[in-house]
Amino acid sequence: MNDRNSSRLAAFGGTPVVSNQNPSLFKWPIVTEEDEQAVLEVLRAGAMSNTDITKKFEAEYAAWVGVRHALGYCNGTASLLGAFWGCGIGAGDEVICPSVTYWASCTAVLGLGATVNFADIDPDTLCIDPGDIEHRIGPWTKAIVVVHYGGYPCDMDRITTIARRHGIKVIEDVSHAHGSLYRGRPCGTLGDVAGLSMMAGKGFAIGEAGMLLTDSDEIYERAIAYGHYERTGGPSRFAKSESAVKGPLARFRGLPIGGHKHRMNQTCSAMGRVQLKYFPERIAEIQRAMNRFWDLLEGVPGIRAHRPPKDSGSTMGCWYFPRGLYRAEELGGLPCEVFCDAVRAEGVEACSPGSNSPLHAHPVFHEADIFHQGQPTSVAFGQRDVRQGSGSLPNAERITEISFGVPWFKHDDAAAIERYAEAYRKVALQHDELLT
């Protein structure tokens, strides 16, 4: 290969920087014979629907993250539903949630008769903008949902101060942020309750599963009573007394108040126990790899690392769903989509503009009549209409212009990471050719 061809953008016939991709760099989760054996033991015992292994996993996860209570769920969406009901959210209530997130962060409140007042995001963190929260709080606001987006911890000091001032709950969605730290404290322990996904594509991946985390006995007991019928009240044939709800909800034992079955499949909890043993060392390698990638791109015009300052005490955990920040004004106004197309031509499949689409304009939150009431559920139970249209949340609506995807490295292979970083650098430094 001649130097001229290798330096020319692949979009114009040059040689791609990344030509031979190593799939093992991105393989996740890491499944060993130990995982397989743990799952096989459950299958051979026919114990998939029991809770003995799940309770051990809950205790180990709670100890690892540092909370009093952990409660296993069939998926992350169910864990957030349990968190909402655990916080007392019901008909006529409102929750505040960032518009850029996966739908499970908030959609479950519609099924409780509540609605969502969406907030804008901060263009540097891609998390909820603390400055766009307080003016949304009204008499019916019960909680703020924070999403540590892409693993980036939200500004929890500002958010919890606002919540305390108004006497409302803070619910953390930690589905992106397994192992992330906010100023040295684990995400998932910073609000009143947290819900998180452990599905196969997440940073802590054990199948289709979720977890609720809280220090509150009341929230924990309410979450059990809502969807864990076999663990409500005790002692009984369903639950041992030490793990059961003991408060005023104990009389509901045997039937879930919410009519849901939220139990975790024990093939997942068995795998979870094994994964947790090795998770700290595995995410440490991911952090080394991802930080190496961004360090190589420090100072390149138009692109920024989506990560906290190095001296902040905050970390990106397992760096799930990694993003970059795009600043078109530094590249002559080059659209993010054009930049991403050129990077993909260099062999980086992960590079695409944006992330999750904004939720505030979706028809589900404007038109869906879940209970056949003749009007949208988002307003049917409410005291005010908090629906928002196009133009109301400018940063959220520009998500495809201000962010892009980057590879999620699972191993710290310096030579390979350098090639991927070079693809982004090459396009940014030759952006003028893409403007003609």
Task: Walk me through the structure.
It is built from 13 helices and twelve strands. The chain has 436 residues and is an alpha/beta fold. The strands form three sheets. It has a seven-stranded mixed sheet with strand order 1-9-8-5-4-2-3. Helix 5 links the parallel strand 4 (141-147) and strand 5 (169-173). Helix 4 (76-86) packs across helix 6.
Strand percent estimate: 5-15%
Largest sheet: 7 strands, mixed
What is the succession of H and E elements? Answer: HHHEHEEEHEEEEEHHEEHHHHEHH
- The CATH architecture assignment of one domain turns out to be 3-Layer(aba) Sandwich
Q: Uncertain spans, ≥5 residues at pLDDT below 50?
A: 236-241
Strand order of the largest sheet: 1-9-8-5-4-2-3
Q: State the name of the first-level CATH class of one domain.
A: Alpha Beta
Structure annotation, total helices: 13
- CATH homologous superfamily grouping of one domain: Type I PLP-dependent aspartate aminotransferase-like (Major domain)
- In which range does the helix fraction lie? 25-40%
Distance between the termini: 26 Å
